[in-house]
């Protein structure tokens, strides 16, 4: 049963790998430029993804049926903490390793998780996506505040609230606000249908952008094997191991088994590619971060299917 679950998960991730690999080859062969990937990423983040968030939230979010929804943003923060804690211990709190600590704790919460959810849970994807969006309400502020400080500790730019207000987060806040104010039924059906149409492009584009981003990375100085091993152990062993164990004891307290599956996928997800963008914008060690990022994504191809299959196998036993 575990083998069958593993094959199912691996096939799903392998489909994403093919798309990602194609994008990477396009960038490496200069058929698609790095600037074009950045432009595509900007359109996806600023238009397609917010449309997807708005459409799914306005149609799928029902607070009365999900009274504990506020736990998901808190879970987003909680998912970051174990990685930061374990990596700080293993790196012995060395200031020059803060960027690797950030990579150990902050996962790719949307660009790889949404496509995996779309393939593994096609009939429940609307809810799966909604759970991800609510969880990101907690992840985004941490990434753009604490993550910024850890990646570029010498920046004198300071912290600005507007750096948190990314279009996806704004879309989440607005759509959740409309639902709680009872105004979501007043949004015309044609508007929601239009947002849904645009939002559907976000899923394939997300994985294409991910591949293009990784393909654009030029391996400079390969990080020390010890550093690679520590990030691997924290990101793909300790964090998912802790989440797996916690979910096994608390799954009966959660309102949906799909939430458990979503949290497990999140826990096994590789580092957020946004960390590279933060480093580029605020003067972090982009070469080291990019090199480590590419290596950890190659590892994720093998490790993610194992954890997700292990969770599905354990759920079947129940």
Can you walk me through this structure?
The relative contact order is 0.18. The chain has helices at residues 2-28, 34-60, 71-90, 98-105, 113-120, 125-151, 167-180, 189-199, 202-215, 225-250, 257-267, 274-282, 286-317. It has 13 helices and no strands.
List the defining traits of the structure above.
single chain, 318 residues, mainly alpha, 13 helices, globular
Helix content: over 70%
Low-confidence stretches: none
The whole-number mean of residue pLDDT values reads 85
Distance between the termini: 13 Å
SS-based class? mainly alpha
Oligomeric composition of the shown chains: single chain
Secondary structure elements and pairings:
Blueprint: H1 2-28, H2 34-60, H3 71-90, H4 98-105, H5 113-120, H6 125-151, H7 167-180, H8 189-199, H9 202-215, H10 225-250, H11 257-267, H12 274-282, H13 286-317
Provide a quick synopsis of the model.
The protein is mainly α and 318 residues long.
């Amino acid at each position: 049963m575990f083998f069958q679950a593993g094959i199912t998960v691996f096939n799903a991730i392998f489909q994403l790998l093919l798309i990602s690999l194609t994008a990477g080859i396009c960038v490496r062969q200069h058929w698609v430029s790095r600037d074009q990937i950045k432009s595509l990423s900007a359109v996806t983040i600023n238009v397609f993804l917010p449309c997807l968030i708005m459409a799914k939230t306005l149609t799928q979010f029902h607070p009365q049926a999900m009274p504990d929804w506020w736990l998901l943003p808190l879970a987003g923060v909680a998912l970051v903490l174990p990685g930061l804690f374990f990596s700080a211990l293993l790196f012995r709190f060395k200031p020059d390793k803060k960027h690797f600590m950030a990579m150990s704790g902050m996962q790719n919460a949307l660009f790889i998780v949404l496509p995996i959810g779309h393939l593994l849970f096609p009939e429940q994807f609307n809810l799966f996506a909604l759970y991800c969006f609510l969880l990101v309400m907690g992840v985004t502020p941490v990434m753009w505040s604490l993550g910024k400080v850890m990646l570029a500790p010498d920046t004198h730019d300071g912290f600005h609230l507007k750096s948190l207000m990314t279009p996806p987060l704004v879309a989440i806040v607005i759509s959740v606000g409309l639902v709680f104010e009872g105004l979501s039924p007043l949004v015309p059906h044609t508007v929601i249908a239009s947002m849904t149409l645009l939002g559907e492009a976000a899923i394939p584009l997300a994985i294409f952008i991910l591949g293009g981003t990784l393909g654009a990375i030029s391996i400079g100085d390969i990080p020390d094997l010890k550093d690679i091993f520590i990030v691997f152990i924290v990101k793909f062993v300790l964090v998912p191991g802790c989440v797996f164990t916690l979910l096994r004891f608390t799954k009966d307290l959660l309102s949906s088994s799909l939430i458990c599956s979503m949290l497990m996928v999140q826990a096994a997800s590789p580092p957020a590619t946004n960390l590279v963008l933060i480093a580029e914008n605020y003067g972090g060690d982009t070469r080291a971060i990019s090199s480590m990022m590419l290596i950890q994504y190659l590892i994720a191809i093998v490790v993610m299917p194992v954890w997700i299959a292990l969770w599905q196998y354990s759920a079947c036993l129940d």
